């Protein structure tokens, strides 16, 4: 990387996290626009929409909302856009990844800022500029980017605590990859989603996010299952949504996320949660990078949290070599597949790495305890 290269760092203007954070939405949005449009899936719009709209109007913000009912596709976004108030100078995304992506798509279409309000800690989309567009049949179409990061992110942990534990598990799987992907990107002078070489700050945040998850995530999984709002849960949410988001956008991605391009095209793994796909992908990346000690450290962590360690746990078979090769071929078309030190990656090498991780996991009676690694 040239010492003279211009490098970027970006993130949301405001991030609020904690129990009751949603109650701040009125004054937060009032500082952005005089009118707002609320986008949510039908269930979240029914559950939280009335309170959100009342809070906005109470703060002097004219507001109306609509539910996302189809895909986040060109046609679906156009239909949603038409159902929202035309005068809105801000779009609010309330819900999971689809609702937040839809809000970003409408905001881009209108050229206005977006505010995100996640209702589960399943990924880091709330903090990022990136969103995914699909075809009407549900297949992935393309990845788009907002011209700037969300104006505000409101993370109400009382709401997130009520989400199914499987969603938090997926978020943990997504979050633990970012340290190693940022390190790999920097090692080969790669480019981040901001389109520049990385500053060191993104990798530092990603590393702290990884350490936070090792220390707090196993207990957070137990706490969310029991409905306990604890510091372990708060720390895990912060690592999953904020640190992970800042880490990947400013640090870059590598093989762990590239593999999702292949996994989503195989019928066995296509519908596994994104966080589970990348969690297995991280193990593959560590094997390819020769980081066997870290790979062996993460196997018991995966087991304790419930993340996949074996091909069968993401719907694949070690005996399906042709299927694994098709996954590898698609993976190598990802823009960040080259962000890995060492020889140029081949289909055979990637296939063999998936098989090697699977064999190691099956041969290792990994105890469901990673506390000593925290």
Fraction in beta strands: 5-15%
Quick one: overall form?
Answer: globular
Task: Give the radius of gyration.
Answer: 20 Å
Q: What is the share of helical residues?
A: 40-55%
Could you tell me the mean pLDDT?
93
Please state how the strands of the largest beta sheet are arranged side by side.
1-8-5-4-2-3
Low-pLDDT regions: 370-374
Give the arrangement of secondary structure elements.
Elements: E1 14-18, H1 25-30, E2 35-41, H2 42-58, E3 62-68, H3 74-83, E4 91-95, H4 97-110, E5 114-118, E6 130-134, E7 140-145, E8 152-156, H5 157-160, H6 165-175, H7 178-187, H8 200-226, H9 231-251, H10 255-263, H11 274-288, H12 292-305, H13 321-331, H14 347-363
Parallel strand pairs: 1-8, 2-3, 2-4, 4-5, 5-8
Antiparallel strand pairs: 6-7
Helix pairs in contact: 3-4, 6-8, 6-9, 6-11, 7-8, 7-9, 8-9, 10-11, 10-13, 11-12, 11-14, 13-14
Short précis:
The protein is of the alpha/beta class and 374 residues long. The protein has 14 helices and 8 strands. α3 packs across α4, α7 (178-187) packs antiparallel against α8 (200-226) and α11 (274-288) packs across α14.
Q: How would you explain this protein's 3D organization?
A:
The protein is an alpha/beta fold and 374 residues long. It is built from 14 helices and eight strands. The protein has helices spanning 25-30, 42-58, 74-83, 97-110, 157-160, 165-175, 178-187, 200-226, 231-251, 255-263, 274-288, 292-305, 321-331, 347-363; strands at 14-18, 35-41, 62-68, 91-95, 114-118, 130-134, 140-145, 152-156. Helix 3 packs across helix 4, helix 6 (165-175) runs antiparallel to helix 8 (200-226) and helix 10 (255-263) crosses helix 13 (321-331). The model is unreliable at 370-374 (pLDDT under 50).
């Amino acid at each position: 990387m040239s010492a003279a290269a211009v490098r970027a760092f970006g993130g949301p203007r405001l991030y609020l996290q904690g129990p009751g954070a949603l109650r701040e939405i009125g004054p937060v949005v009032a500082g952005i626009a005089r009118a707002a449009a609320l986008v949510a899936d039908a269930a979240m719009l029914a559950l939280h929409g009335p309170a959100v709209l009342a809070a906005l109007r109470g703060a002097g913000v004219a507001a109306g909302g609509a539910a996302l009912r189809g895909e986040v596709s060109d046609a679906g976004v156009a239909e949603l856009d038409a159902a929202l108030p035309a005068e809105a100078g801000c779009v609010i995304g309330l819900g999971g990844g689809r609702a937040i992506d839809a809000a970003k798509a409408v905001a881009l279409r209108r050229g206005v800022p977006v505010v995100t309000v996640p209702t589960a800690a399943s990924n880091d989309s709330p903090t990022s500029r990136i969103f995914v567009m699909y075809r009407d049949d549900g297949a992935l179409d393309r990845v788009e980017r907002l011209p700037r990061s969300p104006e505000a992110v409101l993370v109400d942990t009382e709401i997130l605590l009520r989400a199914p534990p499987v969603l938090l598990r997926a978020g943990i799987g997504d979050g633990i990859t970012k340290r190693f992907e940022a390190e790999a990107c920097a090692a080969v002078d790669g480019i981040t989603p901001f389109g520049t070489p990385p500053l060191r700050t993104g990798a530092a945040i990603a590393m702290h996010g990884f350490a936070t998850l090792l220390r707090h995530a196993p207990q957070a999984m137990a706490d969310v299952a029991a409905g306990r709002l604890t510091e372990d849960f708060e720390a895990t949410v912060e690592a999953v949504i904020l640190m992970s988001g800042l880490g990947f956008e400013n640090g870059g991605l590598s093989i762990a996320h590239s593999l999702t391009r292949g996994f989503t095209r195989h019928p066995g793994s296509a519908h596994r949660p994104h966080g589970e796909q990348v969690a297995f992908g991280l193990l593959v990346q560590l094997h390819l990078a020769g980081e066997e000690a870290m790979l062996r450290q993460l196997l018991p962590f995966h087991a304790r949290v419930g993340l996949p360690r074996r091909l069968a746990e993401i719907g694949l078979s070690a005996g399906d070599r042709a299927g694994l090769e098709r996954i590898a071929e698609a993976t190598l078309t990802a823009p960040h597949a080259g962000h890995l030190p060492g020889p140029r990656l081949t289909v055979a090498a990637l296939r063999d790495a998936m098989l090697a991780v699977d064999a190691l996991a099956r041969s290792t009676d990994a105890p469901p305890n990673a506390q000593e690694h925290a």
